[in-house]
Amino acid sequence: MSLTGLTASELAAKLAAGEVTSVEVTQAHLDRIAAVDSLVHAFLHVDAEGALAAARKADEDRAAGKAASPLAGVPLALKDVLTTTDMPTTVGSKMLEGWMAPYDATVTRRLREAGVVVLGKTNMDEFAMGSSTENSAYGPTRNPWDTDRIPGGSGGGSSAALASFEAPLAIGTDTGGSIRQPGAVTGTVGVKPTYGGVSRYGLVAFSSSLDQPGPCARTVLDAALLHEVIAGHDPMDSTSIDQPVPQVVEAAKQGSGGDLTGVKVGVVREFSGDGYQPGVQRAFDAAVAQLSKLGAEVVEVSCPHFDYALGAYYLIAPSECSSNLARFDSMRYGLRVGDDGEHSAEQVMSLTREEGFGPEVKRRIMLGTYALSSGYYDAYYGQAQKVRTLITRDFTAAFEQVDVLVSPTTPTTAFKIGERVDDPMAMYLADLCTIPSNLAGNAAMSIPCGLSDEDGLPVGLQIMAPAMADDRLYRVGAAYEVARDAEQGGPLINRAPKLEAAV
Amino acid sequence: MSKISRDEVAHLAGLARLAVTEAELDTFAGQLDQILDAVAKVGQVAADDIPPTSHAVPVTNVFREDEVRPGLTREQALAAAPAAEEDRFRVPRILTEEA
Amino acid sequence: MTAVAEIMDYDEVLDRFDPVLGLEVHVELSTKTKMFCGCANEFGAEPNTQVCPVCLGLPGALPAVNGKAVEAAIRIGLALNCQVAEWCRFARKNYFYPDQPKNFQTSQYDEPIVFDGHLDVVLDDGETFRVDIERAHMEEDTGKSLHMGGATGRIHGADYSLLDYNRAGVPLIEIVTKPITGAGERAPEVARAYVTALRDLLRALNVSDVRMDQGSLRCDANVSLMPKGASEFGTRTETKNVNSLRSVERAVRYEMQRHAAVLTSGGSIVQETRHFDESTGSTSSGRPKETSEDYRYFPEPDLVPIAPSREWVEELSQTLPELPWERRRRAKEDWGLSDEELRDLVNAGALELIAETVEAGAAPGDARSWWVAYLSQQANTRGVELADLAITPKQVARVVALVGEGKLTNKLARQVVDGVLDGEGEPDEVVAARGFEVVSDDSELQKAVDEALAAQPDVADKIRGGKVQAAGAVVGSVMKATKGQADAKRVRELVLKACGQ
Ligand SMILES: [Mg+2]
Ligand SMILES: [Zn+2]
Predict the structure, then answer these.
(1) Which of A342, B29, C49, C300 has most Cβ atoms within 10 angstroms of its Cβ?
(2) What is the pLDDT of residue C441?
């Protein structure tokens, strides 16, 4: 198998054994990007030179017996929402076209310190607002399973990079499902860690109380290895949790033994029925049956307030975004429009923001501005925060009965590019099942669970665990992954169409 | 059923510093209405005795030591400025004064 | 240009109206670093040299609260007889303005850290007036703009502006009074006396430079009038840009006269921000805003709540120095002053300085004479306030001691003081430059610590046993013994060291 077909842990083993160099591995991925990215458009920026330099450094360190981490020398695709000093950070927006941050995000710094090779920055919905990556100011990313379809969003660039074998690892950020939903529709693994588990410092904020960076990969073990590189307390993020990182690699290894005896799994009753594509439901049901076979005790659990999660989310996230995005005013950095000596600062701000933001971003800013306005705060933002409490209570009650909860990650498989752009509410439904864990802050994962029988597209199984019990996701996920591959005759991702190499 | 008027949309756009077009006023009025209708049901469940959650992690008193840390050089600070002059950020004339 | 407003004769104002005041004072804390980032908090640096991703509002940057600033806020609250919140949060106040990098100010809204207090202020005739405090909360300062082009360097008529963000993020405490009623004709004087008392208090707490000329103490004066006998407040105006104690008094007086003229001629007061002009002693209207204020406050999601434990609050209350009014009462008794003599010292801004000089070891008579005579004269010639002279009470006390020890004559002593004022160093250094030899001894603090530990053997044992929290009590008594002049952090170190911790 070619180097790009290997998983991160396989590459790490070959690097450790001296069978390949990081430069070779990195070059192979750069070649793959050069061959297929004109078709997929997963990357906004590829830094071949920087990546090769980092690879050489990783090789030198390893030769000197100083490999920085188990993932030293392994390439990665970084979502363009995390700041980097050596590549532009655009957040998929015209507002920040070409912006060079003068500092690295904590996640970026930890990746570099671990010797991980950053290949480039991946495409995303503008300011991480969207579920399809169609809201990028730089054009959509395409789903490697069917290039007429969306790769999920907002982290569609990262998920597509994995599914097209352009990178074995990627970083995403998840505010309402932006790691998990792209993972589900591209047949890859995505984890939203416990809120506060991974530092947000240097993550260009969409909704501060919901945003969380996390690992994306093609296998559960790879996600775990990356999780341990990026997680941990950071004094630069006051909401970062000052506790030891859950032992996720250990849990993934334990889980791959394939035994879930003693594990109680709760199926969320509210996430089924109307609006769920039949093929998605069937794939999900099969996955639940598989968990049973592995020894898990499966029960149905009701979380009645999850029905209100979408509403609460579409008040809280826009409210926070209306404030977080106020800084993009053209005074200190970024796009400036209309500075002709006639327009005032206020007018230049308004003209710049009008031109620099896309329709979805503007829509959410308007919605959030409304929800926070005097006279409406109590009815909207205030009520949404109460719903947040109720959803957290639902989780608490559920986790008193079961160890993990499961549901489909998203109600449908990848939809066609353009299909939902004119209907915001239809687009918002893609995050129906993922949002509760953002509101409550607990950990959640999406893992591929087969193809929907009616369209042959990947389906995601969502696993949810209590806050700081991220290790449970990996144990259950890894056990399921082994059983799935055994039953389905190999990794699901290997059934993705081989992309035609463009010349 | 909420009904957001064009005037209200214009007011919001002013608060949010968005020089929206006439066409956008109509589009946004319709879309905000649609979205608010869909989310309004949050008002149905949350009673007065439910405390609001502003932070997902129940932590308090996270403080930093009062110790100087290196920041940016002036060159770094001004590097991305659309305009700079006399080591400062240059901005168009400011009309109003606020709090 | 707007025409100069009509104003009414002051006595006539008082015949017809009762004034209501509300004072909002912003204090810049003198912490080493800013409120939410590790940038240096120093006045006067080169533009944009004390900035970082956080205080420049760069994408992705996050705030982190300066614990020392929270401590200062609580100490200020305690000195103002306030309650300290059990739990409170920061909030975002959203409004666009180029001097504010994030276009929201991280402040506090309906959950201030301290609230419901009072400050007794002494008026010129020695009478005391109680000002009720509504709240004090923590927030951050904005950057500074330079307005270019146009005639006057003012914002109106400028072609463009230049921004320096060194000040952005400097910790501010905003102290807000409840409506001040019943001051009558003395309202302008009450306003000045309140800001003076607050300045003295903050200086005693050692939390701020309290320099109105440099903007580290800023006062916004809200003024309204109600017809005699009425109980409903009139429409208020908020006057900003009041840069000296005297201006506070003048601005309030002017606004009372202007309001009265408008109201009696059948007009009505527009609720607005007004700017005080030092040169004319009048106020002018700020531009009326096109949109009504809607700050869309909501809890700051990037910062976790603050829940000061009662133990911490108690420990901080132990660190309060003797407060100005207590000191004043004691000075009067200890120094045998008449009401009039005390008032003159207070008005000259000399009392605190004399008291500190006495605490540094000088005899009251010597201390008084230096500050009231030679140093007041020097302040005059140098055109600065007494407190802003480049000499500290400690240094004055040292000079007094040198005279007492016979090492200096009075005449030489004045030359030594001149040397200090001219920046030649400590008195002893100036003396040395002239060939004197002086032994310096600075073990006072250690002595005080030893005494405090000896006086509380049980507490000392606890600390030795590893209960370092118990050190608070000892620190408290050392601070008391040293009249709050010691560095509490240093005292704590000495206490712990003395107990082998
Ligand atoms: Mg304020
Ligand atoms: Zn800073």
Answers:
(1) C300
(2) 40
Asked whether A275 and A408 are in contact (CB, 8 A), the reply is no
Query: In degrees, to the nearest 5, what angle opens at C-alpha A181 toward C-alphas A180 and A185?
Result: 120
Q: Tell me which of 1.20.1250.20, 3.40.50.720, 3.90.1300.10, 3.40.50.2300 is the CATH number of domain A3-305+388-486.
A: 3.90.1300.10
Say yes or no to pLDDT of B2 above 80.
no
For the whole prediction, is pTM greater than 0.90? no
Report which of C391, C388, C428 is spatially closest to residue C408, judged by C-alpha positions: C428
The tokens 């009074």 sit on which residue?
C177
Partners of B64 in the beta sheet? C66
Instruction: Answer yes or no: is pLDDT of C440 > 90.
Output: no
CA distance C248 to chain B (A): 18
Long-range contacts, B7-10 (Cβ 8 Å, 24+): B8/A370, B9/A366
Which CATH number is B22's domain given? 1.10.20.60
Other CB atoms closer than 10 Å to residue C244's CB: what's the count?
Answer: 17
Cα separation of C396 and C409, whole Å? 14
Q: Residue B10: pLDDT above 60? A: yes
Q: Is A491 helix (H, G, I), strand (E, B) or coil?
A: coil
Query: Length of chain B, please?
Result: 99
Pairwise CB contact (< 8 Å): C296 & A373? yes
Amino acid residing at A300 = E
Top pLDDT among A417 and C463 is at A417
Q: Is A69 a catalytic residue?
A: no
> What does the alpha-carbon distance between residue C80 and residue C468 come to, in Å, rounded to a whole number?
29
Nearest to A359 by CA among B82, B32, B6, C104: B32
Residues in B touching A440 (Cβ below 8 Å): 56
Pairing of strands A443-451, A458-465: antiparallel
3-state DSSP of A69-93 = CCCCCCEEEEECCECCCCCCCCCCC
Overall number of domains in chain B: 1
Catalytic residue, from A136, A154, A159, A164: name it: A154
Single-letter residue type at B82: P
C134 CB-contact burial (10 Å; exposed 0-12 / middle 13-18 / buried 19+): middle
pLDDT of res. B46: 67
Kindly provide the b/e burial profile for residues C318-329, where b requires at least 16 CB atoms within 10 angstroms of the residue's own CB.
Answer: bbbbbbbbebbe
Asked if residue B15 belongs to a domain, the reply is: yes
Across the interface, whether the CB atoms of B46 and A387 are under 8 A apart is answered yes
Ligand nearest C51 Cα, by number?
2
Q: In this structure, what token pair is assigned to residue A168?
A: 């074995």
A154 is catalytic: yes
Provide the domain limits for residue B18: 1-46
pLDDT tens digits, C150-175:
766 667 778 999 999 999 999 999 99
Residue A216 contacts residue A223 (beta carbons within 8 Å): yes
CA distance C40 to A37: 46
| Residues whose beta carbons lie less than 5 angstroms from ion ligand 1 | C 174
**What's the whole-number mean pLDDT along residues A294-299?**
98
- Within 8 A by CB and 6+ apart from A138, the residues are A44, A90, A92, A123
Interface check C48 vs B, CB under 8 A: yes
The partner residues of C218 in beta bridges, in order of sequence, read C26
- Is A162 in contact with A168 (CB distance < 8 Å)? yes
- Scan for tokens 């430059």, then name that residue: C433
ipTM of the complex model? 0.97
- Three-state SS string over C331-379 comes to HHHHHCCCHHHHHHHHHCCCHHHHHHHHHCCCCHHHHHHHHHHHHHHHH
Structural domains in chain C, sorted by start:
10-311 (no CATH), 340-434 (no CATH), 442-498 (1.10.10.410)
Q: Collapsing DSSP states into helix, strand and coil, what is residue C36?
A: coil
> Mean pLDDT over residues A198-207, rounded?
98
Share above pLDDT 90 across residues of chain C, in percent, rounded to a whole number: 60
CB C190 within 8 A of CB C317: no
